[in-house]
Predict the structure.
Amino acid sequence: MKILSAHFFKEFYSTFFFCLLSLLFVFLISQGFIQMADLVFNKDIDLFLILQLLVLTLPFLLTFIIPMSVLVASLLTFGRLSHDNEIVALRAGGISLLSVLGPLLMSVVVLCLLSFILSDRVASFGHYAHRKVLARIGVENPAAILEEGTFIKKFKNFVIFIYEIDRNKLKGIRIYQPQEGKPTRTIVAHKGEFVSIPEKNVVKLKLIEGTSDEPDPNDPSKLYKLHFKTYDLPLNISGLHSDDELGKKPKDMSVKELKNEIDRLGEDGIKATYPLAAEIHNKIALSLSALSFLLVGIPLGITTRRSEKTIGLGFSLILATVYWVLILGGKALAQKGLADPFCSLQFSNAVIGGFGVTLFVRLLKGS
């Protein structure tokens, strides 16, 4: 019995780690490396900072990749074992499938616990550190975090639209400054560049050849057009440079920090703590998803013949899609206070895990 359990254990985890590395590689190629090359070669960002961003992203990626690897590994492993008639031989020998799978199931429970620690401690820390590195890049090289052809709202009191960004050189700049009770101030420039002043938490936007709306001295409620050759516009970036001033978002907090924040808000008479509670249960739900996927993957893998492997994998992708839709929908409802955070976020595990248990029971009865 121990030999069979060890055999199943080895087969599953060899496939699991292969899937884990493969999915991680695909994610990094499709997301990290392309963006990293753009920042290094097109925007002159220090390679060391880019590597920091990449490393800090890994824990957050793993919280999603681990359960997906469990699902794919369980389908491939038990599909192969079924095709090689090892499951049939097991049943013929009067050996209970559940007794052989016991150690594997327990190991995935341990994996869920490790996933929770990864999500709660490592990924939260990494997410916050990732934001701090981005803030540092934003202060030292503002053009690197801006996109051309979009309305940029990163700077206080201003909305900026830039048609073309080439490293630190800008072309086709439109700046809007909404003013309460007054007409929106508009500045248009043919070209410009950013000049960073980190010690003052200020970025100076040097504009060249354009027009600016300025208050009329005779009537401040009205604006007049000022034509300029050069125009220096200071943009406030306070709160980005200092780590102490960069506040934590719910994703940056551990469960302990989230609970402390809920208690603190409660003492201040603020009961709108749904986003914080939703983040707590989101961490728990994601950690348990590996077990839910295993419970679905084993019976699907065993009952899927080799000729039906594509159908089985397609069905697993449908289940994974359903799971993520349910968990994202549940989180959205919980954040708005429209549903209990525990129920709405654990609903995805209840649906997928319950479906897996049903298939498992039918499989055991069939044996």
The beta strands are 151-152, 159-166, 169-179, 182-197, 202-216, 219-236. The first strand starts at residue 151 and ends at 152. The chain has two domains: 2-140+257-366, 155-236.
